[in-house]
Design a protein that fits this description.
The chain folds into three domains: 95 residues, Peptidoglycan synthesis regulatory factor (PBP3), Domain 2 (Sandwich), CATH 2.60.410; 256 residues, Beta-lactamase; 33 residues. Helices cover 29% and strands 25% of the residues. Helix 1 packs parallel to helix 6, helix 3 runs antiparallel to helix 4 and helix 4 crosses helix 5.
């Protein structure tokens, strides 16, 4: 739709259909999604709702739950318990199956190298989860917050469901393999988008080196490393993940001056392929031109409103042409909405009388707005101006005349009745 012509007597929710064109790119990763972090709009989708094993990208959800529920307690000291650090070999874990809780650690899993009864600050555990991908840090932080790890995981699942994750079920806070520990790329994008609302999360995921006491945590994400073949200057990190059955996973964020994007890639065949595919997705989006479409023309659009006691209708005209700016992969289905101001007579020519807004139908987000001005002076009808009087003088003058008129009318009425009652 281009623009609308003529005068509109009723205007509340005109629906304008526009259709997004998904990015046309080829990637090797079998499960992927690219979204706008600010709007949630999906730019690219490849089997993003199919179930996968998330590996250590699970820690995004764990850190999110910790920030939501202990964000004001991050300086508290946590004691590492025996149960949180309990560790077995992968073979023993497989052999015992359900006899062991799914959060039990594995010998070859990534670790912050915590020791039993060690005291550590909660904030350091979060850095350990995101940078060192510490499975032990995940268990210790989970147990500290919820009393035991299983309760933490149950609560984390409830949080995920409340955010709209329909294909997610976690069995542990770290991502070590369990057959029932699953999510999908779409749900992981939802969780990451929510986590980015927390400034500390943003700070942690872009950190390349974190030193605390004798520990040094180094970022694994090759997109953030200047000496890496896969360094991407627009990237701001987030989280990698790997276990054998999940293959290589990556949740990555990147931003330029106009858009912030989240790419989720699951089950990449190699470690490098996830970075290659992330860069392909980011570049395809950032190379899109910013288009604009004329929705309402200044010369051809006006709106009318009838006001009681007014000498004529209010005609509202657009101050400037109203354009919708969009990227091809994010074009929206739009609702146009007219909001009249609280109008009182007289209405001066050129005064603000309404606003015309374009809203995204999907979530009500404001896309564009333009002011509407009165085309002409609109005042009260003459009779109402007479009744109002000029500076209050009219009513004292007219009232006696009205009373005299009523009196004369009454006399004539009585006289008429008397004449009718006389015999002829």
């Amino acid at each position: 739709m281009g623009h609308l012509r003529g005068i509109f007597f009723f205007f509340l929710g005109l629906q304008i259909f526009v259709f997004a064109k998904s990015l046309e790119v080829q990637i090797e990763t079998p499960h992927a999604i690219l979204i706008n972090a600010k709007t949630g709009h999906v730019l690219f989708d490849k089997k993003s709702r199919e179930s996968i094993y998330p590996a250590s990208t699970t820690k995004i959800a764990s850190v999110l739950y910790l920030l939501k529920n202990a964000g004001d307690r991050l300086d508290e000291v946590v004691v590492c318990s025996d149960d949180a650090l309990r560790i077995v070999s992968e073979e023993v874990k497989i052999a015992k199956g359900d006899l062991l809780p799914p959060y039990i650690l594995e010998l070859d899993g990534t670790s912050m190298k915590l020791k039993r009864n060690e005291k550590v600050v909660l904030k350091d555990l979060l850095y350990g989860m995101l940078l060192a991908s510490g499975n032990d840090a995940s268990n210790v932080a989970a147990e500290y917050l919820s009393g035991d790890v299983q309760t933490f995981v149950r609560n984390m699942n409830q949080m995920s469901e409340s955010l709209g994750c329909k294909n997610t079920h976690f069995t542990n806070p770290h991502g070590l393999f369990h057959p029932d520990h699953k999510t999908c790329a779409y749900d992981m994008a939802i969780l990451t988008r929510e986590a980015l609302n927390y400034p500390l999360f943003r700070e942690m995921v872009k950190t390349t080196v974190y030193k605390r006491d004798k520990r040094v945590f180094t970022q694994n994400n090759a997109l953030l490393k200047p000496d890496s073949k896969y360094y991407y200057p627009l990237a701001f990190g987030i989280k990698t993940g790997y276990v054998r059955k999940a293959k290589y996973n990556l949740v990555a964020g990147a931003s330029n001056s106009e858009r912030e994007l989240i790419a989720v890639l699951h089950k990449s065949p190699t470690s490098t392929q996830r970075y290659i595919d992330a860069i392909v997705l980011f570049e395809a989006a950032f190379c899109e031109p910013l288009n604009q479409r004329l929705m309402f023309s200044k010369e051809e659009t006006s709106f009318e409103k009838v006001i009681p006691k007014a000498n004529k209708s209010v005609i509202a005209i657009i101050k400037e042409d109203l354009y919708l700016k969009y990227y091809p992969s994010e074009e929206e289905e739009v609702i146009a909405k007219l909001d009249w101001q609280e109008l009182q007579l007289p209405i001066e020519k050129g005064s603000l009388v309404a606003k015309l807004s374009l809203l995204a139908k999907r979530d009500g987000r404001l896309l564009a707005v333009e002011e509407l001005l009165a085309k002409d002076l609109v005042s009260k009808k003459l009779i109402y101006r007479m009744l109002d009087g000029t500076k209050g003088y009219f009513l004292p003058l007219i009232l006696p005349l009205l009373l005299i008129g009523l009196g004369v009318g009454f006399v004539l009425l009585v006289k008429g009745r008397d004449e009718e009652s006389r015999p002829t």
